[in-house]
């Protein structure tokens, strides 16, 4: 009888271990993923993507924009959660996240168009290389100067916001 009890305890222990592993796998599969998928080659085949950024396009800033971030630089529209350009110029020490200003007329070339998938839906973002000015040859994230449109199999698509950027070529 004792042998049967030991065998049953061993089997129950293995079942409990397998249930725990299964639980971990289920939780891991639901956790946010940050996979980046290059969509550059698909922009012509999707109606919404075709209105978004395309690798190689050159834009010019229509107004002075803030450069924010430390590890990953971003262009940010002035106002809202960021200071206005004049506020930053008057007191740069008060705005720790702002690292500088991109002047009106700065050119930038789209370097990447990617979808980031959090597991709950994607968002298509764009990055650009600044072609002139203080931040020349640095890559910036364009979310802060973009508008978003939903309606594609890829989720929300980042579009150039004409208030901040003008297509040059």
**Number of beta strands:** 11
- Please identify the oligomeric state: single chain
Distance between the termini: 84 Å
Helix/sheet category: alpha+beta
Number of domains: 2
Mean pLDDT: 79
Q: How many distinct helices?
A: 2
Determine the fraction of residues in helical runs and give it as a percent range.
10-25%
Alpha-carbon Rg, integer = 24 Å
Given as residue ranges, the uncertain stretches (5+ residues, pLDDT < 50) are 23-34
Estimate the strand proportion.
Answer: 35-45%
Net shape: elongated
Largest sheet: 11 strands, mixed
**Order of helix and strand elements from N to C terminus:** HEEEEHEEEEEEE
Would you write up a description of this structure?
This protein has 169 residues and is an alpha+beta fold. It folds into two domains: 1-31; 35-167, no CATH class. The protein has helices spanning 2-30, 85-90, and strands at residues 35-38, 58-61, 65-68, 74-76, 98-102, 107-117, 122-130, 139-144, 146-152, 155-160, 165-167. Strands 1, 2, 3, 4, 5, 6, 7, 8, 9, 10 and 11 form an eleven-stranded mixed sheet that branches. Residues 23-34 have low confidence and may be disordered.
Outline the secondary-structure elements.
Layout (H helix, E strand, L loop, with lengths): L1 H29 L4 E4 L19 E4 L3 E4 L5 E3 L8 H6 L7 E5 L4 E11 L4 E9 L8 E6 L1 E7 L2 E6 L4 E3 L2
Parallel strand pairs: 4-8, 7-10
Antiparallel strand pairs: 1-6, 2-6, 2-11, 3-4, 3-5, 6-7, 7-8, 9-10
């Amino acid at each position: 009888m004792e042998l049967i009890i030991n065998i049953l305890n061993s089997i129950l222990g293995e079942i409990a271990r397998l249930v725990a592993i299964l639980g971990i796998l289920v939780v891991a599969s639901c956790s946010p993923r940050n996979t980046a998928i290059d969509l550059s080659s698909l922009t012509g085949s999707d109606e919404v993507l075709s209105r978004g950024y395309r690798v190689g396009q050159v834009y010019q800033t229509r107004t002075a924009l803030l450069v924010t971030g430390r590890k990953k630089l971003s262009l940010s529209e002035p106002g809202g959660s960021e200071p206005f350009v004049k506020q930053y110029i008057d007191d740069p020490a008060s705005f720790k996240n702002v690292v500088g200003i991109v002047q009106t007329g700065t050119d930038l070339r789209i370097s990447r168009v990617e979808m980031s998938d959090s597991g709950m839906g994607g968002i298509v973002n764009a990055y650009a290389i600044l072609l002139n000015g203080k931040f020349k040859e640095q890559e910036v994230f364009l979310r802060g100067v973009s508008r978003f449109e939903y309606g594609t199999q890829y989720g929300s698509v980042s579009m150039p916001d004409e208030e901040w950027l003008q297509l040059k070529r």
